[in-house]
Design goal:
The chain is α+β, with helices and mostly antiparallel strands. The chain contains four helices and six strands. It starts with a helix and ends in a 32-residue tail after the last helix.
């Protein structure tokens, strides 16, 4: 390779490095937890997740959150909105005297333990079909 070709190669690699750096930075804040932390005030935290204060109707707040980052599934039950994401479930509704509260829970820690997985009302499938592990088990399909 000639000296000029090496300069072109080095320049191309430098430009590619800058492009990938900018792309990586843009992906860092692409999860729902960072969005909520940046836009709502946290007022509580426990082993299950974090709670954020919100104003307005839960349906309106859930819609705003869903516009910022689209959920995999969404359901409504008794005045609360449930937004399911890959690793989290966001529950928007009243909480302990607050008319509007946002609760974020980790689905891996909270909803899976090798048994029944419940991600809030309205999500399908609601439970494993049949018996243990989705099949009736035992010889000839019976227990």
């Amino acid at each position: 390779m000639t000296r000029n070709n090496l300069f072109w190669l080095a320049g191309g690699l430098a430009v590619a490095g800058v492009v990938f750096l900018i792309w990586g930075i843009s992906l860092m804040n692409n999860d729902i937890r960072s969005h909520l932390a940046a836009n709502y005030q946290e007022y509580g935290r426990d082993s299950d997740g974090a709670k954020y204060a919100c104003t307005g109707r839960p349906q309106q707040v859930a819609s705003e959150i869903a516009q910022a980052k689209a959920p995999e599934a969404q359901a409504t039950d008794r005045g609360s909105e449930y937004l399911r994401y890959n690793d989290d479930i966001v529950i928007v509704g009243p909480d302990a005297g607050r008319p509007c509260s946002i609760r974020v829970e980790d689905t891996d820690a909270r909803y899976s333990g090798g048994g029944f997985i419940f991600l809030g009302p309205g999500f399908t499938p609601g439970s494993p079909s049949g018996g243990s592990g989705g099949s009736p088990g035992g010889p000839d399909g019976s227990k």
